[in-house]
Amino acid sequence: MEIWWIIRTLPFLALLSPSSSFSSERQNDSEVPELLALRIKHFEEGQDAYLRCSNKTWNNTLHHIWKINNSGVHCLISEAANKPRHNNCTGGMTLRNTTKGELYLYIPHFGIKDEGTYKCEEVYRGGADVAIITVFARVPPVLSTRLEHDGGQRFAVCSAARGKPEATVSWEEEWWSPKVTERSTNNTDGTVTMESWLLLPDDITQGNLTCVASHASWTHKHSVVMEMTDGSFTLFITLSSIIVLSVVIVTAVSTYVCLKINETQ
Ligand SMILES: *[C@@H]1O[C@H](CO)[C@@H](O)[C@H](O)[C@H]1NC(C)=O
Ligand SMILES: *[C@@H]1O[C@H](CO)[C@@H](O)[C@H](O)[C@H]1NC(C)=O
Ligand SMILES: *[C@@H]1O[C@H](CO)[C@@H](O)[C@H](O)[C@H]1NC(C)=O
Ligand SMILES: *[C@@H]1O[C@H](CO)[C@@H](O)[C@H](O)[C@H]1NC(C)=O
Ligand SMILES: *[C@@H]1O[C@H](CO)[C@@H](O)[C@H](O)[C@H]1NC(C)=O
Ligand SMILES: *[C@@H]1O[C@H](CO)[C@@H](O)[C@H](O)[C@H]1NC(C)=O
Ligand SMILES: *[C@@H]1O[C@H](CO)[C@@H](O)[C@H](O)[C@H]1NC(C)=O
Ligand SMILES: *[C@@H]1O[C@H](CO)[C@@H](O)[C@H](O)[C@H]1NC(C)=O
């Protein structure tokens, strides 16, 4: 009970008046602990994550507590010198020791579900550390290209699917001035699909287009080449012709059948 009060109050007291809140308990100001640290961390989806509260070693620590808030789902992991361990977190989150005896939180296969606020409180002889670490997952997108037909126009689409945070996509081409629109979709899993739609003029039926994307997970830009050949355009013409022809045939046949039915009645 007492510890929770101290932990909750510590950062605020410290912000208001670092020395007065402790001088009654401690004779020496240089022992006033480093109190509240705010940090932001990113982890790649699928990789194991490690979070450190401080670099104090366990043998000096009285309590070590993580209070975790994953989008409103709260859980707690604690280790105290004279109390049983507590851990009601799911997904295999555990406290571990380094060989030097420093405690850290281990999160296996970090994912979007593990995003949230990780508040740790470490109380040791002579002070306490509190850190609030906001943790995000990074998901590299899947890069692809395709040809789309929309409203009688042809588009080359450069797509970076399921990225977190969203990727940036663009087309690199050399031989005409581009008309490009960007479309983004928020996926239900928290990822974003980014697309760059490049309007292809009718007279362009072949050539190479390069779809380029950059993402926080990548140190370099990634690219995919889309090879347009006369073939794909011819295929489009052929498919269109087949569709038109089918419509004509179906109409003719139905007309014929209708006439036949009328005749027999
Ligand atoms: C305060 O503590 C530090 C180390 O703990 C020590 O070096 C220093 O002399 C102390 N100062 C006073 C005024 O006691
Ligand atoms: C602990 O971390 C602090 C800063 O975060 C650093 O100044 C100090 O050297 C570290 N101590 C050890 C033993 O690594
Ligand atoms: C705690 O452990 C570290 C590393 O094993 C050691 O250097 C340090 O002296 C120990 N401190 C105490 C108070 O036992
Ligand atoms: C937990 O996180 C959610 C959003 O992820 C936030 O709305 C809520 O206020 C947080 N709860 C606490 C107690 O911080
Ligand atoms: C874990 O335990 C804490 C404290 O006892 C409680 O507030 C929290 O709701 C529990 N979470 C789950 C998922 O059981
Ligand atoms: C870390 O190591 C200490 C000393 O070996 C041990 O008492 C403690 O239970 C360990 N904690 C965890 C979470 O493994
Ligand atoms: C997608 O999410 C972002 C940020 O969460 C928001 O600003 C944007 O309006 C959303 N877009 C759509 C199409 O819902
Ligand atoms: C497109 O790229 C392919 C292979 O990368 C190459 O063989 C072809 O010559 C290129 N076409 C043009 C028009 O640059």
Automatic annotation (TrEMBL):
Cellular component, GO annotation: cell surface; membrane
PROSITE patterns (UniProt xref): IG_LIKE
Keywords, sorted A to Z: Disulfide bond, Glycoprotein, Membrane, Receptor, Signal, Transmembrane, Transmembrane helix
Chain ranges of the Ig-like domain: 33-120, 140-227
Spans through the membrane: 233-259
One GO BP annotation of this record: regulation of neuroinflammatory response
Localization terms from the record: Membrane
Topology of the protein relative to the lipid bilayer: Single-pass membrane protein
Signal peptide: 1-21
Database matches in SUPFAM superfamilies: Immunoglobulin
Main localization of the protein described in the UniProt heading: membrane
Matching InterPro entries: CD200R, CD80_C2-set, Ig-like_dom, Ig-like_dom_sf, Ig-like_fold
Gene3D superfamilies (UniProt xref): Immunoglobulins (2.60.40.10)
GO molecular function: signaling receptor activity
Family: Belongs to the CD200R family.
Protein name: Cell surface glycoprotein CD200 receptor 5
